[in-house]
Amino acid sequence: MQIDIIGDIHGCFAEFEELTKKLDYSWETGIPIHPQKRKLAFVGDLTDRGPQSLKVIEVVWELVMNKKMAFYSPGNHCNKLYRYFLGNKVQVTHGLETTVAEYMALSKDEQHRIRNKFIELYEQNPLYQILDQGRLVIAHAGIREDYIGKNHSKVKTFVLYGDITGQKHPDGSPVRRDWAKDYRGKATIVYGHTPVAEPRIVRNTYNIDTGAVFGGKLTALRYPELTTASVPSSMPFVAEKFKEID
């Protein structure tokens, strides 16, 4: 199984296209296809904050739902957009406002089409991916070893938001435990959610959210090679978004 796992895109479509081309994917058909039939996988948070969230949804839907050539599981921003599209009351903040602005600029027919595609993408894919006969797990904010294979509410909270304590940093962001330091499992876990300046490799876990939407990089992890590739972001650099992890 040969997979290229892409970190949090957050609407940075240009970087997504550039990164896949760097990984030898061709866009001749309008979606990235690899000549050796490698597949893409996404750690979630396709949308919000970046300039082209809806275009990212279109391509990922085509790859995952239509062509069956990629793997997707949601992030917390995907979950919030899903609830917004269902008509639930959510705060249109923390990046969702950029996706909603794109959406509201569309015609009613186009709104209906993109909404249905995203709802289908969200509902028809698992909370996290267990691939390569259990040797690879892709989960948005990571996953504890004892949670793998389970889907109860605590697992969902962990996968979408990380190992949160309920406390807040001075900037209002949640305090999270560093679950990766305690991981002892055999499966390789690939995740994102918490921006890091460089891919963070701890105990067979790989955080590949290198903050593309905050002016860092968009990163992919190649599996089973376990090598990374990145492209620089075109977005303004926001230093405070890259928290130091002890």
TrEMBL record:
Its EC number is 3.1.3.16. It holds the Pfam family Metallophos. One of its GO terms (molecular function) is protein serine/threonine phosphatase activity. It comes from the Bacteria. Residues 1-196 form the Calcineurin-like phosphoesterase domain. Gene3D superfamilies: 3.60.21.10. The keyword Hydrolase applies. Keywords: Hydrolase, Nickel. InterPro entries: Ap4A_hydrolase (IPR050126), Bis(5'-nucleosyl)-tetraP_PrpE (IPR023937), Calcineurin-like_PHP (IPR004843), Metallo-depent_PP-like (IPR029052), MPP_PrpE-like (IPR041780), Ser/Thr-sp_prot-phosphatase (IPR006186). PANTHER family: BIS(5'-NUCLEOSYL)-TETRAPHOSPHATASE PRPE [ASYMMETRICAL], METALLOPHOSPHOESTERASE. This is Protein phosphatase. The lineage of its organism: Bacteria, Bacillati, Bacillota, Bacilli, Bacillales.
